[in-house]
Amino acid sequence: MIALARAARAAGHRLALLSNSFGLDPFTPYEHVGIWDLFDVHVVSELEGLAKPDPAIYRLALERIGLPAERCVFVDDYEVNLPPAAELGITTVYVTDEDRAVAELEALLGVTAVLTV
């Protein structure tokens, strides 16, 4: 997924992190793997006082990314989080298998994830 995010950004796509955080203080799980830098926008539940699947958090992400819902794709590994996004007009991808999800996203975004070793 990280390679896909990099490829999407390199192709000019804007990316938003929409996360139900399990805590940022005193340790941020995102910092050590460089997640913050992969995304143009960060919407983290702990910071916003909202959490998926509350529709308000998806609307906040759309507002911050500055794109209409119809131009966005939401990816999640919890099926319960997908319907609120879809109801707003966002294309959704349910991740049950990473390779399958990456292939689906590559097709949707017109990019190829390149793994570096």
Structure, explained:
By secondary structure, the chain is α/β, with parallel strands linked by helices. The protein has a single domain (about 15-95), classed as HAD superfamily/HAD-like (Rossmann fold), CATH 3.40.50.1000. It is about 40% helix and about 15% strand. It has 6 helices and 4 strands; from the N terminus they run H-E-H-E-H-H-E-H-E-H. The protein has a two-stranded parallel sheet. The longest helix is centred in the last third of the chain and has 12 residues, at about 100-110. The protein starts with a helix and ends in an 8-residue tail after the last helix.
For the record, the CATH class is Alpha Beta
What is the molecular shape?
A: globular
* Strands, total number: 4
Strand content: 5-15%
Biggest β-sheet: count, sense, barrel? 2 strands, parallel
What is the quaternary state of this protein? Answer: single chain
Low-confidence stretches: none
How many domains make up the 3D coordinates? Answer: 1
Which architecture per CATH? 3-Layer(aba) Sandwich
Structural category = alpha/beta
The number of helical segments is 6
